[in-house]
Amino acid sequence: LFPYTTLFRSLLKRDGHIHTRFCPHGTKDSIEAYVERALSLGLEEISFTEHAPLPDGFTDPTPLQDSAMSKDDLDEYFAVINKAKEKYAGKIIIRTGFEVDYIEGFESETAQFLNQVGPMLDDAILSVHFLKSDDGYDCVDYSPEHFKKMINDYGSVENIYENYYRTLLKSIVADLGPFKPKRVGHITLVHKFRLKF
């Protein structure tokens, strides 16, 4: 059991899924505040994985359209994290990353974006938040009220789950180019409202 114990302890010293002020629905805390908190917890490595800008041509279906960072903020995002890397060099490993949405039907746009930013990334997560239906797209984790509407539209909770896991499998096998994320995020996200529904 010793090797597994060592591996488990090393995993506890890393946070690989951190959002920042660059996401409209996120916190306003500074990058430095995250790093200082990580150091206080004894973490050895962190990955900033902000929600990447949504693909060209895709309209965010959430009411506030605040699911991802703006393309206009990309340069600042990279600059702020690079500055933190320099400031905390030797104290903690800081990785620049994104949480990239897999959106069915927008694979080529996503690959094109990844080809542009990939060389600047140390880490990335591929996640599913949006489900394609006959009527467009739904954000599966937006709110309990929206999930209730989805139940009516999809016919059942089970149908939503099936669509989610079908989409998740598509994301895993999708050709998104050489910079496709190597990790999959929160694969049970569709269960977010399971206690209510």
Number of strands: 7
Rg: 18 Å
**Estimated structural class:** alpha/beta
DSSP helix fraction: 25-40%
Q: Characterize the overall form.
A: globular
Work out the strand percent.
Answer: 15-25%
- Summed over residues and divided by their number, the pLDDT gives a mean of 93
Compile the SSE list and pairings.
Layout: H1 2-11, E1 14-18, H2 31-40, E2 45-51, H3 74-87, E3 93-101, H4 107-117, E4 123-127, E5 130-133, E6 136-139, H5 144-154, H6 157-173, E7 183-184
Parallel strand pairs: 1-2, 2-3, 3-4, 4-7
Antiparallel strand pairs: 5-6
Structure description:
The protein has helices at 2-11, 31-40, 74-87, 107-117, 144-154, 157-173, and strands at 14-18, 45-51, 93-101, 123-127, 130-133, 136-139, 183-184. It is 37% helix and 18% strand. The longest helix is centred in the C-terminal third of the chain and has 17 residues, at 157-173. It has 197 residues and is α/β, with parallel strands linked by helices.
Please tag this protein with its features:
197 residues; two-stranded antiparallel sheet; 18% strand; alpha/beta; globular; 37% helix; five-stranded parallel β-sheet
